[in-house]
Amino acid sequence: MEDTIGVQRPPFGVDLVAPDGWQVLRSAAPALRDDLLALVARSPAWAALDERRRRGSAVLLEAVAELSAASGALATLLGTDLPGVAVLTLAWRRTAPLRADLDLARLVAGVDRDAPLVGTGAGPGVLVRAQRPGPAGGPWSTSQLLVPVPGSVWLAALTATALSEEAARAAEEALLRVAGSLRVQRRAA
């Protein structure tokens, strides 16, 4: 095993609950990109978008599929009842030889000790928000919650990405609900 922060699967099970209006997709599916596009194309929000926003949303979904695969995401959730496109992912970072804790989560997130902490089902996590211009001209918002599993070398990274301000608010609310349901299933030693 390598001794650097890397993308891997933890040696324990994880439970989480998808909020209403969110479709759970397995990130390991070979056709995740096509599945995402097909699912969104069937949603009422897609029909309401003009062609420019559809192209931008398709670019976002392709990027999410690529990032999900590259990050080793364990789960990808797609918001299907939102006023825009939003995606949530759960990925894990192995932090060995360092123990995962809030200080390490802050370091990974690039924030100081004033960054907001959020309670989750697996313990407290560090919440980080970012916004930049998206492919369709509107804001591309990201909220990420980094949650260290106490006494381990594992850091959960829950990330919500949205292509509109309305969807960003709904995506962060869903991120917080999923985080609240996150449970680590450790084996008894």
Topology:
Layout: E1 6-7, E2 13-15, E3 22-25, H1 32-41, H2 44-48, H3 51-71, E4 75-79, E5 86-94, H4 102-109, E6 117-118, E7 125-133, E8 139-148, E9 154-162, H5 165-181, E10 183-185
Rg (C-alpha, Å): 16 Å
How helix-rich are the residues, as a percent range? Answer: 25-40%
* CATH fold assignment: Jelly Rolls
Oligomer: single chain
Please count the beta strands (DSSP E, at least 2 residues each). Answer: 10
Structural class determined from secondary elements: alpha+beta
End-to-end Cα distance, whole Å, is 21 Å
Order of helices and strands: EEEHHHEEHEEEEHE
The shape, in one word, is: globular
Strand content: 25-35%
Mean pLDDT rating: 81
Largest sheet: 8 strands, antiparallel
- The helix count comes to 5
How many structural units, i.e. domains?
1
Which regions contain 5 or more consecutive residues with pLDDT less than 50?
Answer: 1-5
Would you give an account of this structure?
- The chain has 189 residues and is an alpha+beta fold.
- The chain has five helices and ten strands; from the N terminus they run E-E-E-H-H-H-E-E-H-E-E-E-E-H-E.
- The chain has one domain: Jelly Rolls, CATH 2.60.120.
- The strands form two sheets. Strands 1, 3, 4, 5, 6, 7, 8 and 9 form an eight-stranded antiparallel sheet that branches. A two-stranded antiparallel sheet has the order 2-10.
- Helix 1 (32-41) packs antiparallel against helix 3.
- The radius of gyration is 16 Å and the shape is globular.
- 39% of the residues are buried.
